[in-house]
Amino acid sequence: MNSTSGNKTVLALLATAVVLVSALVVAVILVIDAEGDDRAAAPSAVNGDPTTVGTSTSSVMPDSSPAGSPASPGQATPPVPGAYVGAGGPRPATAQPLPTYVSRYGKLRSAHLVTPTGRIGCDFNQPDAEGAQGLCGITSYNKSSSPLGCVTRSGTCKGRWIFPLAANRVGAPTDGSGTTGWMNQPATDGYQVPVAAYGNQYYFDDWICASESNGLTCWNTTTGSGVFLAVEQAVRFDGPGGTSG
Length: 245
What we know:
The chain is α+β, with helices and mostly antiparallel strands. It has two domains: about 1-60; about 95-240, no CATH class. It is built from two helices and 14 strands, in the order ααββββββββββββββ. The strands form three sheets. Strands 1-10-11-12-13-14 form a six-stranded mixed β-sheet, with no helix packed on it. Strands 2-3-4-5-8-9 form a six-stranded antiparallel β-sheet, with no helix packed on it. A two-stranded antiparallel sheet has the order 6-7. The longest helix is centred in the N-terminal third of the chain and has 46 residues, at about 1-45.
């Protein structure tokens, strides 16, 4: 009887041990599966939809600085706000020569250019007997309400819209009658007025013009005298800008 009772006790203990081991194995499997699910979920949360992630990243770290933001330290600055950065300095290496011709009346080597809008342009010529070298202007300023003011002639206020070029300098704005050379397209002598494409620079002798979507900047490389022409404003300057601190 004692032997039989002992055997039953041993069997009961073994059965209990098997149950405990089985329960432990099941618990371990459940824990491993749970950890595996967390790891599987992590990539979708990080990667997500590529478009969404790209949009979020670009909104925090834009690829380019907003327009009008301050220049970085040591960066070149334009002589007046809005003008071409290199204005007032030497001729840009990328500047293209303007096609020239000899004018019918003045018998002077000349050239013209006009912006894509047709509202801003310049005439250039070799210095005449009085030292005049051409002019630049904004057609929308040719009215009594010109932002540059007006000149009273014969009781009529004529808007200032032309900047004369003489002695390698840009003169004070004045009025003008008739049309300029760059407004005549094509010119009567067959000259095709070049359209100054945005992002390009052009030159005639020592005069340079840089065309940008916000305006036309022209200057003389000998004196640094120039003017920034835009629909909103027209500002003269002397010499190049500096560098930001």
